[in-house]
Amino acid sequence: MLTIAVTILLGGLAIGWIVSEDARTRRRRAQILKTPFPKAWRSILKKRLPYFKALPTDLQLQLKKHIQIFIHEKRFIGCNGFEIDDDVRVTIAAQACLLLLNRETDYYPKLKDILVYPNAFIVKQPQADANGVVWDHRRILAGESWGQGKVILSWTHTLVDAAEPYDGNNVVIHEFAHQLDQEGGQANGAPLLSSITDYPSWSKVLGEEFAALQHCAAHGLPSIFSYYGATNPAEFFAVISEVFFERPEIFYQQHPALYTELSHFYRLDPVSWH
């Protein structure tokens, strides 16, 4: 009986702590939003992010609020001698928070650190050959998303992609789409949807479109989506998210059912912004 009582007590304390932590988070965020959006940050948005002007006014206001909370809660770390300043924070935060507009969000809850390299970086991954010999496979990357609370970005690629918002390539959108995908566990192209009834349609449409992109990649056929999206369903979701935000008109024209799925997921209609 004593053990049961202790278990119940500890369970109650744990629940109480979670509830109180949620309340503290809400209060802290409300306090952050009482602070006016810094004038210097507005200048950075205008300088670095051409698409910001295209957003409806209500979404501009939302985005600025998200940026304030995101920058307050996430740690930016410079790598290879790269120095972090507000230019870096605001430019990255604005693109990352674009994916959170109109959605209930806890601001990428698993994410703690954003590591920023001055240029593309090298990642070593152990691989085994047919004989079982393990060796380090070196890859040069512009970005990477870890399920263990980290996103890694190249500042050079971040700037280039931000300056050209209509080419369908954006490393920040790509990696933070992975973060959304990873909120439910391993990235698998099936992020947490708003309702369980959304999954059948999502699975059907994205499965068919993924297979179609694999066919295009295998036969060298044209596609508005990078062949990299044919690698696996997780990369497919990240790649189509880039195109959804940056080339919405042609996306909708060529893949209306897929566009509808992403529009429902992100609760946005980028076609209407242009």
From TrEMBL:
GO MF annotation, one: metallopeptidase activity
Pfam family, one: Peptidase_M90
PANTHER family named in the record: MTFA PEPTIDASE, PROTEIN MTFA
Gene Ontology annotations for the cellular component aspect, listed alphabetically: cytosol
Name the record gives this protein: Zinc-dependent peptidase
